[in-house]
Structure formats: structure tokens, C-alpha cells
Amino acid sequence: KQEVTQIPAALSVPEGENLVLNCSFTDSAIYNLQWFRQDPGKGLTSLLLIQSSQREQTSGRLNASLDKSSGRSTLYIAASQPGDSATYLCAVVGGSYIPTFGRGTSLIVHP
Amino acid sequence: GAGVSQSPRYKVTKRGQDVALRCDPISGHVSLYWYRQALGQGPEFLTYFNYEAQQDKSGLPNDRFSAERPEGSISTLTIQRTEQRDSAMYRCASSFTSGSLLVSGETQYFGPGTRLLVL
After folding, report:
1. Per-residue pLDDT tens digits for B9-27
2. Which residues of chain B make contact with A64, given a CB cutoff of 8 A?
């Protein structure tokens, strides 16, 4: 059974810092990995999706990398802003076609 | 355009009562997923549909849980004889293509969820 772990569970940083969020998964036979943002009272919003054949994806200040063989992904957030405060979730899709989510990293960026 | 909507947003019920949670996906979306999310956890898969056909219900915890999508649009998740352990956020997501195409990178659009509290 696929297990997804996210470290750290929580993070509080001052505005402007560069951040790295980590996601690891136990079964490397995945089709893709996706990073989501979750805001209170709202649904999850997709940030970046990396196919298994890809190494990284970038969108604005966000960069996600994937090392499938080692079962790891990182989400890099450059020049963090208070508006980045949210919970960040990673999810992998494997042979069952069903997404498996991690517990998330709760991020607070204070001015 | 309108996103995925869910109703009610909050539901408080007494143990033993039945509840019905509704999901209205984005118009034209083929697949619809139900997830349950406990506090401090990530979403956990329950079931999904392509059009009106239930493709996978392996995540439903027991036979008190059921879901339907009779016309391939709105879906209802029903929990019978609710128990306190059923308390959680129930999330719905839809996708433009069929569920199996998640492997090709089709993203899911999530609704705001229904917070269920069973007393």
C-alpha cells in the first residue's frame, strides 16, 4: 500500500524566505505526483503536476522536483509572501489510478 | 465559471441518523470523486464515477456508506446510521476526463467540502 509522508508538518517563516517542502512515497511505481494548496473554507487548488517521466515543473515562484527512484519530491517556494500561508499537500497516482495524499505541511508566512 | 459546489457546507447530526451530502461538479466534467478528510490528515479516497457509472468504491469504509450519480452530473454520498467516527470533512472533486486518465496528468477540481459532525 502506497504511503505518502510530508515533512515538516508545520513551518513558520518570515516573509521573503525561500522554502523547501518535502514529500516522500514508499512505492516508486507512480504515474504522476501533484502538489496542492489547501486554504481554510475552500477546496484544494492544484499547483504543479509532475509526470513520472519528468524531473521538475515550475510555475512562477514555485518549483517542484521529482526523484521517482528514491521516492521523493520537493516543492520550492521562492521569496515567500504572507499570501502563501496555507496547507500544502502532495498526492501520487499509482497503479490503482487512485490519488494517495500526504498529511500536508501547514505553512505560515508572517510579515 | 462556476466551480465544484457542495451542500450543505456544515452538517450536525445525532448518532444513528442518516445523512446525504451533495456534490455538484463543474458542468461537463466526466469523472467525480469523493474523499474524506479527517482533521490534520490528507484526503482519503472513497469512491469515484465516470458519468453515472461507479468505477471504484474500494475506499468506502463499510456498507453504511453509499454513493450515486444517477444522471452523470450531481452526486450524493449517503451515510446511514451515522457514528461519531464518521465526523470529518467530506470533499468532492471533478475532472474533465475519465478517472483513469488521472495517470496522464488530468487535474481534479475540488469543492469546498461538507463538514460533518456526528454527536
Report:
1. 999 999 999 999 999 999 9
2. none
